Amino acid sequence: VNHSLTTEGIARWHPLETSGGHRGRYLWTDAFGVLNFLTLYSKTADAKYLTLAYHLINAMHNILDRTRDGKARLAGATDTHPLTRSFEN
C-alpha cells in the first residue's frame, strides 16, 4: 500500500479493512478519522484532507448502509440515492 500524500496517492487512497467491526469498519473509529481529516483541513486549508475524508466517508457508507449480509441497501435507499430512506409505516 502506498501511503504517500502525493496527489496521485491521495486519489487512490482507501482505508484499510480491519479484522473486526462490521465487514472491517468501526463506525466510531472511522468517524473520529473523518473529524481528524476535517480538523487538519481547517488548520491547513489543504484540500487533500477533504479528499481523504471523502474516501473514508465513502468506505463507511458503502458498508454500513447495507443489510448485514451486504446484499441490499437499507430500506428505501438505492444505489443512485443511497441516503433516501422511507420512514413511513
Would you mind describing this structure in some detail?
This protein is mostly helical. Helices cover 46% and strands 0% of the residues. It has three helices and no strands. α2 packs antiparallel against α3.
Q: Which structural class should the secondary elements be placed in?
A: mainly alpha
Query: How would you sum up the global shape?
Result: elongated
On the 0 to 100 scale, the average pLDDT is 77
Into which percentage range does the β-strand content fall?
Answer: under 5%
Please trace the helix and strand order, writing H or E for each element: HHH
Short description:
The protein is 46% helix and 0% strand. The protein is mainly alpha-helical and 89 residues long.
Topology at a glance:
Elements: H1 7-12, H2 27-44, H3 48-64
List keywords for this structure.
89 residues; mainly alpha
